[in-house]
Each structure stands twice: as C-alpha cells, then as structure tokens.
Amino acid sequence: MRLFTVIALVVVAGCSTLGSIASEGVDFAGAKADAHCDRRFVTDGGQAAAFCQEVVSTVAAAEFSDDCRAKHLATPGTGLCPREHIIAGCKLHKKNDDESLTWDWYYDVSEIVADAGRNAGPDGGPTFDTQLHGVAEVESACADPSRYEEGAELAKP
Known about the structure:
Layout: H1 2-23, E1 33-42, E2 51-58, H2 61-72, E3 74-78, E4 86-92, E5 101-107, H3 110-116, H4 135-142, E6 152-155
Antiparallel strand pairs: 1-2, 1-3, 2-5, 4-5, 4-6
C-alpha cells in the first residue's frame, strides 16, 4: 500500500510538472503556445528596436525563442508581448505553416531612452534603429511593403 501511495505521488507530481511546462509555452509534443521576442531589450552587440513581435498559437515557441536570442540578441518570453507603453501594432498577413498568427507591437520608448541618459549608445545603453511616435506612423509602417512584404494591418492593443 505504501508503494502504491509513493507511485501515485510521483505520477501526480509528474503531471503537474508537464502541465507547468506546457503552460509556460515550451514546445511539448505538438502543443501550441504563445511566445514573444522583445526587441527593446538586447544584449551586447544587439540593435534595439522599438517593437516586440509575438506569435500566437504556435507549435514552434522554442524555435521562435531561440531565433530571438541568436538572430537579434533580444529578449524572448512566453505569452504575449507586454502591453504597457504600446502605441499600436501590425497584424502580419504572413501565413505560418502551423496556422499561428503574428503581430509586431510598437512602443513609446521615451522612458527607456531617458533612463539611458548621456550613456546612450552601443557601449552604454539603448539606441533604437527606428522610433514611431503615434498611431498614424505605426499604420504607415504596417502599409510599407518594404517592411511587410506580405502585408500587415493596423492593430490596437
């Protein structure tokens, strides 16, 4: 009876752990998850950008996170992009193989830039390749075929 109790506890603990892994957006046996890549926060050598890309309901959350780190030196995370300081976004028309949906959310980064102060720059803090300051600028970016080859439409948080 004691052995049965121990086995039952191990099984329950294991299920709890698997549930935790799946809910945190880690790819697990084809489970779909949400993930984001926050380009505002990069490691040394990365180029900060005033947006965060999120992919919703993907089977490739781990690969998306790996690409975020490796290609952009940016900050990946599970779930959706943070909503604080969003100006607006672009819902991409690109068709993903797993039928996931992708958004680029553009942010007001003035506080980040102000915090960097005189030390802003490649060696001392963030500089941003582009900054959009209003919904009209984001809408224009969404319509720009050089930025979104397959098209995108304005989205509000």
